[in-house]
Known about the structure:
single chain; 6-stranded mixed beta sheet; 3 helices; 6 strands; 23% strand
Amino acid sequence: MPRLLKSFVPQDGRQSETALFVARGTRRLLRRLDFSSVTELPLLSGRRADIVALAADGTILIVEIKSSVTDFRADTKWQNYRAHCDRLFFAIPESVPIDIMPEEAGLILADAYGAEILRDAPEHRMAPATRRAMLMRFAQAAAHRLHRLSDPEVVSLGG
Length: 159
């Protein structure tokens, strides 16, 4: 697999190279579908979503990346993401068997260059207060990250 340029891939050391490739391809798909997305967004529950995507109509998707069978089996709390989105997807690389992925969530097959939706996710609309909180988290995370790009020293100033 090709190496991603570090300047374009925000990393905190927790993601495997495979997960970074899956995230890149998935985000390209989401962009083509007119969603904006952010990675590693802290949720109200204290968990962190791999990808949160926002449509112009306010629809929010969460995409949980599973880079291996072991990664999937180690995650017993994925159902908790449902309360924070309108649709929940898993995104996997070709090396993860499709048949182990739960049918209660959508399924995306991705690599470093793109992705496709293999199974759409069932809709479960969020409560209005949760939607507002998620929109605020999304907006603040995006604004802070954009600010850091133009002013890397802002982190040392408490931002």
